[in-house]
Write a structure and sequence with these properties.
With about 1000 residues, this protein is an all-alpha fold. Helices cover about 70% and strands about 0% of the residues. The chain contains 48 helices and two strands. A two-stranded antiparallel ribbon has the order 1-2. The radius of gyration is 36 Å and the shape is globular.
Length: about 1000
């Protein structure tokens, strides 16, 4: 707080502003400063309000040691100056006796006699004030439950009494009743009791998030896993990072551990690392730490104790080390509570949680289905990227390993990759001794082979600069080993990689002709290299011809120039003829695959599918089998081009199934999943498409293509939102935004902004207006600096303005709208700006009535200028005409403000602009709504039913004749209402 308030008005303004802040350290510190500032005023009423705000900040900021101190000050003021407390303040004071009871229970240093003494004080005060004792008996029951005593009598004394104005809210009482049944072992009764809260019919500051955390495991035991999943997603979001709800966070971690979602549990633990240091309530901390230990115990039991885990600040932790630390601290807390209480209740409850067995082997909680293996940092040795479901047995002899690896590599067999990786490990060992065997050749050759393999892997990952450098190094090594043919192949591959890298650093709108020219030059250089390298072996010449054909195929793909097709086919024919003549089997199918793809690139899809069909049959009969998945993927793409989505889906699905028989690098399964997502959307199967999108993205992440992965995930998040799966969308994006490279700012800022924008829209769709507005305001501030993209800023600022309007913050909404208009002037967004301004006008008029009319009309004036600009630019709106929509909004805004004559005039103008309805349904609906509002304004608010009824009857007749019966129903209903009113 820069300066302390000098007047009571300033103090109350600061109190109101602080009340809008989320609970946490910032709000608490401000409340402390305001309470201190209130001491300066002679009037005690501001001090009372400041102390009430301070106690609330302590209570919901998880600082139970300080809350009773503030309350004691308030009680002293009440005793000394009872007349200065108004009714609101007195009600607040008596309500908060329960807060103090809860705070004292949470502190093991407070003796049991002190807890009982406070309850006696509460009862005496309530009786003296003539208040019902149900809230007191509620606290008696909660103490008995805390102590682990038999709660039967205490429960009946509380639950059988009628509620009073000072009872806990209904949602909180429902939670206590449900937990009582849960403790008694009656899951079904507990779940029935919880229904109003879990269904959203009863809520408060802590509910339904608190109830949701307790209901997770009973739902699983009741075989209601889908409901548990939904509650986890929504409930966790409501309590994450909140010190006052750390116990709830702990129960969500436990839920993850008991449903096969240990990887998600570690992710959520990292998100809540602040709770280790910010939770001041020992009771809440005990619950949180026990949930953490359940998770870490499960991680360690599964053999992943060395995984990194987020824990106490000041050091790095493994799961095993953090578990040991947490266990010690939690055991100590439980022992302190039990010593104070004279029971073993807390140790017993903690033991029961830790001994609970998993309830499900696997429950898909989010769209990012990951295991602990996915969390484990990838080792340089062959792992998921090179493994195969039935991994080949490697020869024990180094000579045999080298010879066999080269043989497999010449065939193009995918098992060669794992062998090269094994050889690389052996070669890097300090004690490596190269075999003195003519069959193996010199060490320089082996080093060249490994460089060429590494170069190929870099090329597969689109790291063409690295690929080029490695191929050049390999060529030099082959020359050193006296192998000019292999050196020529490496140099040819380097030429291709160099050409593919051309224009990579250029702008996105660079002319593809530049890359096509580079590919032309690369082909010419390859031909010269071919001519200058005599005595090539048949398999070497086949590889060189394959590279020549590939570079011309890429040129055709890049340029789209049909004149580039014939040279590509000519090279493919050379390759095919050579491979057939010399029985280079892998290159025969490779040539036919190139031919099919070249037909597709040149637009001859029937020829492409015919070639692919023939190749599939040949591969099924004669192999090589590892070429079949790639060929099926190509045929699936061709079927997509032919609009045969069913055939495409069948091919891609089979390709995915067959690819599982080979090492992961043999087929880009991430790309296959992406194609299946596209195909599923065409078949009207969005949920299936979503599964393929998320799988594709996760595979891209594993192979290091992080930007591509985030782009795919962004598409998946938008599809999830379009499907109405709001919590799934938010959970997916929350997970992505916690990725280390996102947190560290290493990912493209615009891509991160897109993820955040989709999340903000999902929050809005999920009716979390406060969180959505905060995210939009942040994005609008950030996008204001995007000088190269004013269009995006206009879009974001416009959406921000609408959300601020929904929140009733019309001054800030006006400022956001001004930003949107300024950006729109640089990059027009006529339709969105018009819609934004009209909606702001509607919101202000509806919320403020006549008082907000001037502001609303100012927004409509801006919308009118946007419509004028659009008309002058020849812009045609996709849906509603901007002019008719504006006239209608003038009518609605004036009606909200009570200016009914102006409203009717505007609506008549809108109807004139719309014209008579036709058979098109959208236009008929807009016209009918305009007639309905005009009829309501004229017949009800202006009390002129005589002219309103003919208007409505004529419209009903018109709409019915055109078949728009649904659109006519509201008009018929209004006409009936007017006739009955007469």
């Amino acid at each position: 707080m820069p300066t302390a308030p000098q007047t009571t008005d300033e103090l109350y303004q600061e109190l109101q502003e602080n009340d809008r802040r989320p609970y946490g350290r910032t709000r608490t510190v401000t409340a402390e400063e305001l309470a201190e500032a209130a001491e300066q005023f002679d009037d005690p009423e501001p001090l009372i309000d400041a102390l009430l705000e301070l106690q609330e900040a302590y209570t919901y900021g998880s600082e139970p040691r300080k809350s009773p101190v503030v309350f004691a000050r308030l009680l002293t003021l009440l005793d000394e100056q009872p007349d200065v407390f108004d009714e609101r303040q007195r009600n607040q004071l008596f309500w908060r006796f329960k807060w103090v009871a809860n705070a004292l229970r949470a502190l093991p240093e407070v003796p049991l006699s002190g807890l009982r003494q406070w309850l006696t004080e509460m009862r005496d005060r309530y009786e003296k004030a003539g208040l019902g004792l149900q809230p007191y008996y509620g606290q008696v029951y909660q103490l008995a439950d805390h102590l682990g005593e038999d709660t039967t009598a205490a429960y009946e004394l509380w639950a059988a009494r009628a509620r009073t104005p000072y009872s806990d809210c209904e949602a909180c009482e429902i939670c206590e009743r449900a937990r009582h049944h849960l403790t008694a072992g009656d899951d079904q009764r507990a779940l029935r009791t919880w229904e109003p809260v879990l269904a959203g019919k009863q809520s408060c500051q802590e509910e339904p998030a608190r109830s949701a955390s307790y209901a997770l495991l009973p739902l699983l035991r009741a075989a209601r896993a889908d409901e548990a999943r939904a509650l986890h997603l929504a409930g966790y979001r409501a309590c994450r990072r909140n010190p006052a709800m750390s116990g709830e966070v702990g129960r969500h971690l436990e839920f993850c551990a008991l449903t096969g979602n240990e990887a998600r549990g570690l992710e959520l633990l990292a998100e809540n690392r602040n709770l280790f240091d910010e939770v001041d309530s020992p009771l809440d901390l005990l619950s949180f730490l026990t949930g953490v230990e359940v998770l870490l115990q499960r991680v360690e039991l599964l053999g992943h104790g060395e995984l990194p885990a987020a824990g106490y600040a000041g050091r790095t932790w493994t799961a095993a080390a953090l578990r040991a630390e947490v266990r010690g601290r939690a055991d100590d807390l439980a022992a302190r509570f039990d010593a104070r209480n004279g029971t073993t209740a807390h140790a017993d409850r903690r033991r029961a949680r830790l001994e609970r067995a998993p309830l499900l082997a696997a429950l898909e909680l989010t769209l990012r289905v990951r295991t602990l293996e996915d969390v484990t940092p990838a080792a340089p040795a062959p792992t998921a990227s090179t493994s195969t479901p039935a991994a080949a047995v490697l020869p024990e002899s180094l000579t045999e390993l080298i010879v066999r690896t080269r043989s497999l590599d010449e065939e193009g067999h995918p098992d060669a990759k794992v062998r090269w990786t094994r050889l690389r490990t052996l070669l890097d060992a300090p004690d490596y001794t190269h075999p003195d065997d003519p069959a193996v050749g010199p060490l320089a050759r082996l080093r060249a082979d490994l460089l060429a393999d590494e170069a190929g892997t870099a090329g597969e990952r689109d790291d063409f600069a690295r690929s080029t450098a490695l191929y050049e190094q390999a060529a030099a090594r082959y020359e050193e080993a006296g192998l000019p043919g292999d050196a020529a192949l490496a140099r040819a591959a380097a030429l291709l990689a160099t050409a593919e890298n051309s224009g990579e650093d250029a702008a996105e709108d660079a002319d593809p002709a530049e890359k096509a020219a580079a590919l032309t030059d690369a082909h010419a250089a390859m031909v010269r290299l071919h001519e200058e390298t005599p005595d090539l072996a048949p398999r070497q010449e086949a590889r060189l011809l394959r590279l020549r054909a590939s570079v011309l195929g890429l040129r055709l793909q890049t340029s789209g120039n049909e004149e580039h097709a014939a040279p590509a086919f000519a090279e493919i024919d050379l390759l095919h003829e050579h491979a057939v003549r010399h029985e280079v089997v892998g290159q025969v199918s490779g040539a036919r695959l190139l031919r099919a793809s070249t037909h597709a690139l040149s637009g001859d899809l029937p020829a492409a599918v015919a070639e692919a069909d023939a190749l599939v049959e040949r591969l099924r009969a004669d192999g090589p089998a590892w070429h079949l998945p790639r060929t099926l993927v190509l045929r699936g793409q061709i079927h997509l081009g032919l609009r045969d989505a069913e055939a495409a889906h069948a091919d891609l699905t089979e390709a995915l199934r067959l690819a599982a028989d080979w090492p992961a690098h043999a087929t880009d399964t991430g790309r296959v999943h992406a194609l299946l997502a596209q195909t599923s959307m065409r078949l009207g199967r969005p949920d299936e498409a979503l599964r393929h999108l998320t799988r594709s993205a996760e595979l891209d992440l594993r192979r290091g293509s992080r930007t591509a992965a985030y782009c795919t995930y962004s598409n998946a998040a938008q599809l999830t939102l379009d499907l109405g799966r709001v919590e799934d969308c938010i959970a997916l994006l929350d997970s992505l935004l916690l990725e280390p490279d996102v947190v560290a700012g290493e990912l493209d800022d615009r891509l991160v902004a897109q993820l955040r924008l989709t999340r903000a829209r999902a929050l809005h769709a999920g009716e979390d207006l406060k969180a959505a507005t905060a995210e939009f305001v942040s994005l609008a501030a950030e996008s204001a600096g995007w000088d190269d993209d004013p269009s995006s800023h206009a879009m974001i600022a416009a959406e921000t303005a609408v959300l601020l309007g929904e929140s009733g913050e019309f001054d800030r909404a006006r400022e956001a709208a001004r930003q949107a208009l300024a950006a729109h002037a640089l990059a027009p967004r006529y339709e969105q700006l018009s819609s934004c301004l009209r909606e702001l006008a509607r919101l202000q008029a509806r919320q403020q009535g006549a008082e907000g009319l001037a502001g609303a009309l100012a927004h409509l004036a801006d919308a009118g200028r946007v419509a004028d600009e659009a008309r002058a630019a020849g812009f045609a709106a996709r849906d509603r005409s901007l002019d008719s929509a504006l006239a209608y909004e003038h009518g609605r805004v004036n009606a909200y403000a009570g200016e009914y004559e102006a409203a009717l005039t505007a609506l008549d103008e809108a109807l004139a602009l719309l014209g008579e309805p036709g058979e098109e349904q959208g236009h008929a609906g807009e016209w009918a709504e305009c007639v309905r509002l005009a009829g309501a304004v004229e017949g009800i608010y202006l009390k002129r039913p005589a002219p309103a009824l003919p208007r409505l009857d004529a419209a009903v007749t018109r709409l019915t004749a055109l078949g728009h019966t649904e659109e006519a129903k509201p008009l018929t209903s209004l006409a009936t209402q007017l006739r009955e009113g007469e």
